[in-house]
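thought: fold this chain, then report.
action: predict
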Amino acid sequence: MNDFLTNNLSSSSLSSLSVIFSAALAFILSVSIGLTYIKTFRGLSYSRNFVQAIMLCSIITSMVIHAIGDSVAIGIGTLGALSIIRFRTNLKDPRDIVFMFAALSSGIACGVGAYFMAFVGILLFNIAAFILYLSQLSKVSYFDGILRFNIGSDELDIQKMAEILKKHCKVFALITLKEIAVGERLEYAYHIKMKPKSTSEELVNELKKEIPAMQNVSLLLQETTVEL
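observation:
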């Protein structure tokens, strides 16, 4: 009887330590994922709650995997219970989905006891995220911004405007063209990409100087990772 109790207590103690260690390691790994997300984030829609969700979800995943263990019946029952929950949060950025999946994967790996795989996998994931953040792959954009202005219907002014755009812009594409002031003026909107040796200030100043009839000139430049 004493041997039976001793064996059960010792196995229960080892199981408890395993659960605690798995949850702690999963949390540490997911915190590193969250910090990587913060350091490599670009854009306007930063969410602190999303970062906290990344850091916490691995603990839940690890706990669920431990609870299932090797039991197929428990796994099916857990899957059925989780299917009742409706997650209505939309992740519009595919990059956010990847980071959330990385956190869930770290919890799964820790839950099944693959600690080395979890550590190495998340380490490589974080390194790859920083490499992509610092590389030119994340900085390439086809257009630099949007140029808006209105001009008279004089063909000479329109021709001169096109020549200035060709001089300073590597690429420019007309987005919208509409009549204003009862057809006396035309309002243009262009997607533009500047030439390496030209600046936005030079473009705007030359347009205003060479075409006095041009009005309301505005150039909206975008960040490399923010879509207009």
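thought: worth noting. Residues 1-11, 224-228 have pLDDT under 50 and may be disordered.
final: tokens above.
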